[in-house]
From TrEMBL, chains A, B:
Protein name: LacI family transcriptional regulator
Keyword Transcription attached: yes
Source organism of the structure: Streptomyces sulfonofaciens
Superkingdom of source: Bacteria
SUPFAM superfamilies documented for this protein: lambda repressor-like DNA-binding domains, Periplasmic binding protein-like I
Repeat is among the record's keywords: no
SMART domains for the chain: HTH_LACI
Record region (Disordered): 334-363
GO MF entry, a single one: DNA-binding transcription factor activity
PROSITE patterns: HTH_LACI_2
Length: 363, 363
DNA sequence: CTGTTAGCGCCTTCAA
DNA sequence: TTGAAGGCGCTAACAG
């Protein structure tokens, strides 16, 4: 530290400064092999004095990989993915790894580009919320450990951590059915990923369980990045005046639904009950609070990273899928149709009843 | 593509497959130097066939730096930082760079650790929301281009992109004063960074401008990561019953204030007006909508990244500070004290009056 | 315990 | 237009 340097300090220079050879200096700094205490101290002091920073490029050129771990998400501005990334980062940082973050904006091509970049940088491993199987397959083929998060692409040879979408959706819709709703709409923005598909499955399963007939008309798929989701929801509600409750498949959809209901002056839950899959901060803040299926997002990130770290550390064995259970949180946005026999408290401070907490492993 | 490979494909292997030398293959793939078209095609085909991926470690060992760019933020779960990161990523990805994201959790030590990691990976440049000057100084000293975002540490030798906190705060508080408020509280969670400090300055300046006396009692500093911000706000409000308006210094504080007001049954804005510095999605969703100082966060990330890219590309010249102007958005959470002469519409769909849009550069 | 030797994969002179 | 040679910074053998 002191004078600004133009040339990076190399190990050789440190060794010279300490009056020893490069290999000894290497051993002293890395802590491998035998080095006399005295020399070691001299080397460390010299490194310190010169502001030495080891070059990971050189290091990973020798060894196997850089310490970098890639993460691909579909929309960093979506709190869901931000929380996921935060969880991943926390776990990786604790293990001394760096996280390279790529936003694929839901595009298969961009995910693949990201994967290629990870390959090029010899990433130690990659976590991704898949948008297709190409990226995963490319990485696996090259021997890079991969853990899929949130969704599964169907590619083989990688671990995964997901949330039980079907169960979460089934519980939510069952709640509405129990309250007496018979015309329950489901709004989603994609069915090409297993998250959307499984939530739809859960919606259907709940109906079957209750012996309530299904109608295709009650399912609205906005598609990813709808131009004007509010308008689509509006048109849908106009076309289906009998709807007394809406199940929104994720936080983005939930926001669109909520805003449209507010815009048209519908009273929630009296005129229409609402449940969101995914529980964000604002859902606790609005009045009434939104009944929601909470996903342990941050934790999912952490656990996925841990799984990956284990693979990086050399753990063998079959690919595992960790399925996390969501938690049903009842707030004020759901009640019996027409507002009769309202059992929900307006907005309980603490949240609501927990259900299905925990997680289980399946091969 | 095809058979899973255990050993990474090297340039030499590609060359061999194409029946040429490594140097020629290098030129063919990199596009440097002269290569016969026929040979070039053969090499490209071979590379493709073998699934060749260049090794950036080797490449950056030769050259100067890896194509990696570091970003340090203080809390990825905070939507503000997530949006910032998204902006940065967008710009970097477009330029073919990868973003390495580090969350320092507001800790100087962790930021420094991140900086060291960036140095070790020979990052092409680094963007950071500084928590101290140590990280910036270390990087600058080693010749790594740095752009500070959102805040400035005071370290020299780096560019910066910030938002005019003082002006944003002054405008907001002036609005409250114009409405007739005289006991306006300001709640913040830090004054060690220039964001908090400057917002406080703006708060004071507005009072001075209006000739309204200031009282230290009206400023509540919760401190970063308060154990129970709600309780602190509650105690503060109890101790200052005369307060008719609250100016919250950022989205975290705004949420705490909002929740506490709701908890105690205060009617906003009749009993208490509220303004937030930083405009998040939920502030548009709640009833009434929150009057807010909107920051062009995503854009700040983009612009900061662009500035850094220019430096990486070799742009010389003095360090620049780009100051972005916030936009005052009036919604329903502000009115005259006591709810008299209420001029605000309950919750205008589009937002409110814009003010101070644009940006300017200063050396 | 320490120094010498030999590359990791790539790119960049330099000759041919 | 192409190939051979050398070296980026580091570390893992191998002597000494």
């Amino acid at each position: 530290m002191g004078k600004g340097k133009r040339t990076r300090v190399t190990l050789r220079q440190v060794a010279q400064e300490a009056g020893t050879s490069a290999s000894t200096a290497s051993r002293a700094l890395a802590g491998n092999g035998y080095v006399a205490e005295a020399i070691k101290a001299r080397v460390v002091a010299a490194a310190d004095r010169l502001g030495y920073v080891p070059d990971v490029s050189a290091r990973s050129l020798k060894g196997r990989s850089s310490g970098l771990v890639g993460l691909v998400v579909s929309d960093l501005r979506n709190q869901f993915y931000a929380a996921l990334a935060a969880g991943v980062e926390g776990s990786l940082a604790a293990a001394g790894h760096q996280m390279v973050l790529v936003d694929d904006h839901g595009s298969d091509a961009q995910a693949l580009e990201g994967a290629r970049a990870f390959l090029a940088m010899r990433a130690a491993g990659v976590l991704l919320a898949p948008v297709g199987r190409a990226a995963t397959e490319l990485l696996v083929e090259h021997g890079t450990p991969v853990v899929e998060v949130d969704r599964r692409s169907g590619a083989r040879g990688c671990d995964a951590v997901t949330i039980d979408s079907e169960r979460g959706a089934r519980d939510a819709v069952a709640h509405l059915l129990e309250l007496g709703h018979r015309r329950i709409a489901m709004v989603l923005d994609e069915t090409m990923w297993d998250t959307g598909r499984n939530r739809l499955k859960g919606y259907r399963a709940a109906h079957r369980d209750a012996g309530v007939p299904l109608s295709r008309r009650l399912v609205l798929d906005l598609g990813l990045r709808p131009a004007d989701p509010g308008a689509d929801v509006a048109a849908f509600l106009d076309a289906n005046p009998g709807v007394t409750a809406v199940f929104a498949a994720n936080n983005v959809v939930a926001e669109a639904v909520w805003q449209e209901l507010k815009r048209r002056g519908s009273a929630v839950p009296r005129d229409c009950s609402v449940i969101s899959f995914d529980d964000l901060g604002w859902m606790r803040i609005v009045e009434p609070g939104l009944t929601a299926v909470r996903q342990p997002v941050y934790d999912m990130g952490r656990q996925a990273a841990d799984l990956l770290l284990a693979r990086i550390a050399g753990e063998r064995g079959r690919a595992q899928t960790l399925t996390l259970q969501p938690e049903f949180v009842r707030r004020g946005s759901t009640c019996a149709p027409g507002g009769t026999a309202r059992t929900a408290h307006p907005s309980p401070p603490g949240g609501g009843a927990a259900r299905g907490v925990g997680s289980d492993v399946s091969a």
